[in-house]
Amino acid sequence: MLLGVPDVTPAHDGVDSLGADCRIDPSVSVMRFGQRAGVLCLADGVSIYAQTRLVLGDVLADPGVGMRIGARTIVNVGAYLSGEGGLEIGADVLIGPHAKLLSAGHAIDGGDAIIARNRITRAKITVEDGAWIGAGAIVLEGVRIGRGAVVAAGALVRRDVPAGMIAAGVPAALVRPRRGLAVPGPVPAQGWGRRVWARLTRR
């Protein structure tokens, strides 16, 4: 008996495909409408804990709508994952409790004064293998979290985090590379800037 750990399940409402040995708490909810196959797919050994919300919205609204979660990834309690603009999570990723990955929003400039009437903005979020998104962190649309990168608890991430780097704060800034890694990751071509990356990796 495993207390507080979801049971292995062969299926879950709203999930198109599950690999072997996936664990999904019965309280996990999926918000989607429209008919399209292969939109929400989990690889082997994925665990999704209680009160997590998986959001796709209208699966016909945009070809990028979708969510894929890689093998052995763990999504902790109360997380909110949006695939409305596309969400790709790699293998062996840790998503902390109450973290939010938001791949869609509303346009705020121009259009209607009532925000709810304005167009939906969408941009894919990618979380590469072995990354850790800390408790209560927020990752906004269009962001890539690199392989083995760490997003600190409570951080607000608006820009890409290179592989092997740690980002923290509101808004998030690069803090340092993870120590002891043979290769912290490729030099970023843009975004945070090559000089910032070089300064941090010399520490």
Describe the structure.
The protein has a single domain (17-201), classed as Hexapeptide repeat proteins (UDP N-Acetylglucosamine Acyltransferase, domain 1). The chain contains 1 helix and 22 strands. Strands 2-5-8-11-16-19-21-22 form an 8-stranded mixed β-sheet, with helices on one face. A 6-stranded parallel β-sheet has the order 1-4-7-10-15-18, with no helix packed on it. The chain has 203 residues and is mainly beta. It is globular. Helices cover 4% and strands 31% of the residues. It has one helix at 194-201; strands spanning 17-18, 23-24, 29-33, 40-42, 47-48, 53-58, 67-69, 74-75, 80-82, 87-89, 94-95, 100-101, 104-106, 120-122, 125-127, 132-133, 138-139, 144-145, 150-151, 156-157, 165-168, 173-177. The chain starts with 16 loop residues before the first strand and ends with a helix. 38% of the residues are buried. Strand 21 (165-168) and strand 22 (173-177) form a beta hairpin. InterPro entries: Hexapep, Hexapep_transf_CS, Hexapeptide_acetyltransf, Trimer_LpxA-like_sf. It comes from Verminephrobacter aporrectodeae subsp. tuberculatae. This is Acyltransferase. It holds the Pfam family Hexapep. Keywords: Acyltransferase, Repeat, Transferase.
